[in-house]
Amino acid sequence: xxxxxxxxxxxxxxxxxxxxxxxxxxxxxxxxxxxxxxxxxxxxxxxxxxxxxxxxxxxxxxxxxxxxxxxxxxxxxxxxxxxxxxxxxxxxxxxxxxxxxxxxxxxxxxxxxxxxxxxxxxxxxxxxxxxxxxxxxxxxxxxxxxxxxxxxxxxxxxxxxxxxxxxxxxxxxxxxxxxxxxxxxxxxxxxxxxxxxxxxxxxxxxxxxxxxxxxxxxxxxxxxxxxxxxxxxxxxxxxxxxxxxxxxxxxxxxxxxxxxxxxxxxxxxxxxxxxxxxxxxxxxxxxxxxxxxxxxxxxxxxxxxxxxxxxxxxxxxxxxxxxxxxxxxxxxxxxxxxxxxxxxxxxxxxxxxx
Length: 354
Ligand code: SF4
Hints:
- The chain has 354 residues and is an alpha/beta fold.
- It has 13 helices and twelve strands.
- Among the domains are: 120-188, no CATH class; 265-353, no CATH class.
- The radius of gyration is 21 Å and the shape is globular.
């Protein structure tokens, strides 16, 4: 993993939801680093806290959730290992969600693309009007200039006839075209960081491949960082350079994408990888009634506080008296490859002794 070009750092983030039924610890001590021009993939099952981590970064956590601990630092000028002046450093967690400073960051420095494009666009306003509004909110440009820029950005996301699309309503576009329009809206202010939360889940595979190609091309063109959230390891393999695997509000493994697929360390990551179909397996299964492996058990009740490792009720390598007693610490098993699991405690002890 590279050690410089840091754009944003999340340290010890805790975002909890206080509900009448109890406390949901949606994000429970997350550390992440996002680097300029690179894609950090966040992967995990629904409810693991990946979307709430992203919403915390944008200060958009819905009520009754709130950040209760931790720091999110955003470097307006790319952070080259401590060479950044303090005026370029923004402590996002110290800003009020609706403060002018936070509004200036949101949509301008950091943008977000969601799974469902219809939810991101107003159905009663044209695509162009919505992109122009985003541009005029952050930049001092005339209406005519904003319209020109809107047409230009629609062309860059490869929408055909952008000077016509600019005057259409979202419902007049196909799902793939709508998602391109939403990406155009997110990119309209040239953000340093694009958060993409399952942006292709609602699309067919061909359209998904086109959107992924487009995002990679735009990343190169704009040199922006992408935080790509998904439950799909296939998409992670295509998009990300670094990957964080999340389970029940915690990052359980983090490394570069090649190491994750070649040498997954955490039993949860290993189980996730076993649950995706390989072409060889599909061929071998043809004619035989063999099922894909699934991760045993269910994600526990969100209000429960499990002792020890939160994956222990589902873990095939569970160690009685260890895994159900102590919370595993983060262990660096090889340079840049960290894991939260007691199986690697011996490695940690060796590292401390040497
Ligand atoms: Fe499994 Fe124990 Fe490791 Fe948790 S700490 S993942 S229960 S082996």
